[in-house]
Amino acid sequence: MFAVTILGNNSAIPTLERHPTAQVVTCNEQLCLVDCGEGTQLQIAKYKIKRSRLRYIFISHLHGDHYFGLIGLLNTLNLLGRTEPLSIYGPAPLEQIIQLQLDSAETQLKYELSFVPLTPGYSGIILIDKELQVSCFPTQHRIPCFGFSFEMQKRKRKLLPDQARAYEIPAAYFSKLQDGEDYRRKDGTIVKNDWVTLPPPPAKRYVYCADTIYDTGLLRWLEGADLMYHETTYLHELHERAAERYHSTAVQAASLAAAARVKQLLIGHFSSKYTELGPFLEESRPIFERTAIAEEGVTFLV
Amino acid sequence: MFAVTILGNNSAIPTLERHPTAQVVTCNEQLCLVDCGEGTQLQIAKYKIKRSRLRYIFISHLHGDHYFGLIGLLNTLNLLGRTEPLSIYGPAPLEQIIQLQLDSAETQLKYELSFVPLTPGYSGIILIDKELQVSCFPTQHRIPCFGFSFEMQKRKRKLLPDQARAYEIPAAYFSKLQDGEDYRRKDGTIVKNDWVTLPPPPAKRYVYCADTIYDTGLLRWLEGADLMYHETTYLHELHERAAERYHSTAVQAASLAAAARVKQLLIGHFSSKYTELGPFLEESRPIFERTAIAEEGVTFLV
User: Fold this and answer.
1) B119 and B227 assigned to the same domain
2) Within an 8 Å CB–CB cutoff, is residue A90 touching chain B?
3) Where do the annotations place Zn(2+) 2 binding (chains A, B) (predicted)?
4) Count of domains in chain B?
5) Which of A102, B25, B230, B300 is surrounded by the most beta carbons within 10 Å?
């Protein structure tokens, strides 16, 4: 399964109804947390996310609504007896912020916590693990900020069992065929791998654009994505305020989605001034039909 | 009004039902926040605490369940346009923790934030403002930890209007009488203040014992308090675990309350292993009858 579960869809000022930004990307048995606003650990409990499967945390930038819940989560994982390692990718000062708080509490984590600092402006692959590959790219915000692109590449080729049997390849060898190996028959002749398998399906891709002003420079990262998340802090009538604050509107997110020919658009990071979210869809769908609200507790398949 | 409103009564691992430690002490128009676990700002919103009247924040120690919500609250007050000054009293490293996070977000607070570091082991008066006086004292915990004693002293003397009129003192002078001044009549004779007023009522006192192992050394701070808060992380059957972890049981808190002859005991900081809190009362009330659970959202008069 390759999917995104929304834990928070609100912008900076938290409300009792909506929570600050946090998402869980599920890549089969591996879970990634993307941003971690205050209270994320309770959202994880509420939506029964399997904490033990959480392996990577990506923090887009150091505005509080994207990371103030991180230290509490790290602490709780420790209290709950976690021993599996955990890696955090984020802006460099985050490491000191975490360490200072652990030191002040005289807390020694019982699990291995590694930190990968992201250099402002950097783009490129930052993680390859099993079927998952993650890249980061800079977005234009008031402080250094990163988007993340999650790619799930099935590495095994698709077996064509009838063909394999026709070449008298024993079933015990099928998994090697899926790994791309040829088969050598007893008479020494070779069955080429691509006679009995098909290439793996193309990688699926989820792109998380974090906080950003409207920026067509993002298109190169978005092009053809299966699912794209873009912030829509404001509706169109406040597009000037959006630009001033390095945020975006629903119209802008939909325009990028259309230009990038993504398959689906998720919108979130709504200003707490909005109690109704319907108008965000009303503004975006005429421009990009397959738009969905990043509703808390909902899982979207990539 | 002199009262305590409970915002959180749980210990370190947060649950969906109970929140980490936070209390609001109301002293007429001034509000003090005592500890500030993750999510406190939402509890403040939920229970309609007037944020604009919040003037002082006291942090007992740097375990996360007592302060991880502070940076989020400070940030939200700023986003909401606060201009009134705010003072934080707490262990020294807290100042750097806050400043580092403000700097990383390039946030300049629009209100004056002052920080008063508490030296490990220090006891004494730390604040005098209007009718409020606050002292701190050390408690015995795994890391440096402070309790706080809040005293509300009505400074005005009680006027006896019949007596004042009998001495022909004009009503316009009554407030000066309440401030303790004598009255000089036209014929030059003096009406002594204590002929027409009574001393102010004795100060009321709320003592917050923060996190602590069972420690009779606390009695000197508790003696005769009108309301005392003591943690009861565990029930008696786990008193060994309590001691190992520098926490207390309900029996221990009630024993201290009885020995200190306080008027009322509030208990909280319950381990998240307990879903029912009734047994805490069953254990403490046979030892100290006037015990109450520090229930979230409830206000206790001092």
Assistant:
1) yes
2) no
3) 65-66, 211, 269
4) 2
5) B230
